[in-house]
Structures are given as C-alpha cells and as structure tokens.
Amino acid sequence: MIKRLIKHGNSRAIVIDKVLLEAAGISETSLFQISVNPSGGLVIQSVEDNKTDVLRENFEKLNKKHKKLMQNLADL
Predict the structure, then answer these.
(1) Residue 6, pLDDT score
(2) Phi then psi dihedrals of residue 3, to 5 deg
(3) For residue 70, what pLDDT is reported?
(4) What percent of the chain has pLDDT over 90?
(5) From CA 43, how far away is CA 14, in angstroms rounded?
(6) 69 is in which domain, residue-wise?
(7) Alpha-carbon gap, residue 74 to 4, rounded angstroms
(8) Number of domains in the chain
(9) 48 pLDDT band (50/70/90 cuts)?
C-alpha cells in the first residue's frame, strides 16, 4: 500500500486505513516505535502492550525509589 504524508498542524501524518489496522490487530491505544533505517526511510513497528506494562512498572519503581530526585528534575 502506498500512502502520502498529509499536513497535520506543523507536522506531517500518515493515515492508516481501519481495515489494515484491524488486520494487524492494532488499536487506537497501540504504541509504536519509529526509527530511521540506515539505508534511508523510516521503520514503524507496533510495540506489544506487555512490554509497555513492564516499562511502566519499572518506571514506577524507579520513581518511588528516587522520588526526591525525580521531583527535582521535574522542577527544572
């Protein structure tokens, strides 16, 4: 499938058809990792929710353990 970028405010966006998203099992709340391919172009991959849950849990542990440091960083 070939798509063009569309203007979205000061950015550009790619619209992905609902049928394609459903076929890939991707919902509106899915997260994506976007990277630059060394030979050119972008690579867009969906990220599994269970990986984001682990990341969130680890962040919460880190935030709890270093609460004062995190607050100081947030205040900068």
Answers:
(1) 96
(2) -130, 155
(3) 80
(4) 36
(5) 13
(6) 6-75
(7) 38
(8) 1
(9) confident
